[in-house]
Amino acid sequence: MIRLEGVTRFYGERAVVDDVSLVVEKGEMAVVVGRSGSGKSTLLRMINRLVEPTSGLISIDGRDVSTVPAHVLRRGIGYVIQGHGLFPHRTVADNIATVPRLLGWPRDRIARRVSELLELLQLSPARFSGQYPHQLSGGEQQRVGVARALAAGPDIVLMDEPFGALDPIIRSKAQDDLKAIQARLGATIVLVTHDMDEAFRLGDRIAVMEAGRVLQYGTPRDMIARPADPRVAELTGSGEGALRLLALVRAGDAAEPFDASTPPPSHSVPAGASLREALASLLWTGEGELAVTGDDGRPVGRVTLASVLRHGRSP
Ligand SMILES: Nc1ncnc2c1ncn2[C@@H]1O[C@H](COP(=O)(O)OP(=O)(O)OP(=O)(O)O)[C@@H](O)[C@H]1O
């Protein structure tokens, strides 16, 4: 658990982070979102002591981070930055091995870990281990950056605009992968972005920052249902609230049983798709309902246009 209490950072006369208090629970992904210059990166960098707070307290699992030597602290916290920050003259495998080497892991354990992470991030070890960063695409470099941050199995990972440089399609795939990896590894993640869609897609909780202050910290649903401040409503896009709500619900969770007396719907969505995707499909096909299919492709129920509309209504 990461706890921030009254954390403030001045540069000159200006508090670029101003009296921020929040708690990130173990295993959660907290997304810090706000405009450029709102203080997001500074806030993140105080957690691993790349920046020291002017006042306030930051603790991890009850331990004040200012009492832990910075280099020791950073070995236990993964850090991913935009543009990935890979070492250009080291191979992919050597990049990923950076922290395990610092920790003195035996060679064979490092080699196993590197292969495991490459596979987890869908980069074939045989092809990528010996390559250099400049031989990879932006998306591949970014995945290597994530693998490096995860290498020593940190409990905490800090990510600063990790997907900023990716094109929209790779970006959305990278976001899905990150969610899946987090679910598997159980890491606590704090991710900074200026992209509200990304925040809604990834965050268990979202902190909306403006001018150094956190205007609201809550679940995506809270942000839409109960914006604490008109600026939050403006940033979350009040006009898009319905679509954002639909994006939070899985079709499988909204599925209703089939009515045996009517023929099954001719089109379908996977249970893992969101109702936002289901709505897009309903509009596109002109149908009034869709079958919802499970992992094995078999129908598990249906979603109707009427139920999608209900889920998107203002809470
Ligand atoms: N080392 C520094 N010295 C002086 N001012 C700084 C320093 N680092 C950051 N700032 C200022 O603090 C403010 C917040 O910067 P920060 O990088 O935290 O914002 P951000 O929300 O992450 O922005 P972006 O999305 O553009 O990266 C900015 O106005 C920035 O110019």
Briefly summarize what is shown.
This protein is an alpha/beta fold. Helix content is 39%, strand content 24%. A six-stranded mixed sheet has the order 6-7-8-3-9-10, with helices on both faces. A four-stranded antiparallel sheet has the order 2-1-4-5, covered by helices on one side.
Walk me through this protein's architecture.
With 315 residues, this protein is an alpha/beta fold. Helices cover 39% and strands 24% of the residues. Strands 6-7-8-3-9-10 form a 6-stranded mixed sheet, sandwiched between helices. A 4-stranded antiparallel sheet has the order 2-1-4-5, covered by helices on one side. It folds into 2 domains: 2-244, P-loop containing nucleotide triphosphate hydrolases (Rossmann fold, 3-Layer(aba) Sandwich), CATH 3.40.50; 249-311, CBS-domain, CATH 3.10.580.10. The protein is globular. Helix 5 packs across helix 7 and helix 12 (241-248) packs across helix 14 (275-285). The two termini are 30 Å apart. The chain binds adenosine-5'-triphosphate (ATP). Adenosine-5'-triphosphate binds next to helix 1.
